[in-house]
Amino acid sequence: MTSFSVGNLFKGLSQAGAWGCFDEFNTFRIEVLSIVANQAYCCLSAEKLFLATGENEFSFVDDDRITILPTVGFFITMNPG
């Protein structure tokens, strides 16, 4: 998976308000992991802002305007070794 494809998943989940489980994130190359972690942070920060202010639109890391639903959730596992 690339950072582009994972970014599309984050955008889709955010707009649908769906949950996503990302298993074994540690298998990503470190360069990709850094970008993907930033994408997840962007979406979760937008959800936090929505819950605090009611603002439901945010700018994703690629400057796409995304409407977020508060039911979105990301579950990420990392298995060392």
How far apart the termini lie comes to 20 Å
Average per-residue pLDDT, rounded, comes to 90
Tally of individual helices: 2
Cα-based radius of gyration, to the nearest Å: 13 Å
Work out the number of β strands: 4
Characteristic key phrases:
81 residues, alpha+beta, Rossmann fold, two-stranded parallel sheet, two-stranded antiparallel ribbon, 2 helices, 4 strands, 47% helix
Overview of the structural elements:
By secondary structure, the protein is α+β, with helices and mostly antiparallel strands. The chain has one domain (3-76): P-loop containing nucleotide triphosphate hydrolases (Rossmann fold, 3-Layer(aba) Sandwich), CATH 3.40.50. 47% of the residues lie in helices and 17% in strands. The protein has two helices and four strands; from the N terminus they run H-E-H-E-E-E. The protein has helices spanning 3-16, 30-53; strands spanning 19-22, 57-59, 65-67, 73-76. Strands 1-4 form a two-stranded parallel ribbon. It has a two-stranded antiparallel ribbon with strand order 2-3. Strand 2 (57-59) and strand 3 (65-67) form a beta hairpin. Helix 1 runs parallel beside helix 2 (30-53). The model has no long low-confidence stretch (mean pLDDT 90).
Q: Would you kindly provide a brief summary of this structure?
A:
The protein is α+β, with helices and mostly antiparallel strands and 81 residues long. It has helices at 3-16, 30-53, and strands spanning 19-22, 57-59, 65-67, 73-76.
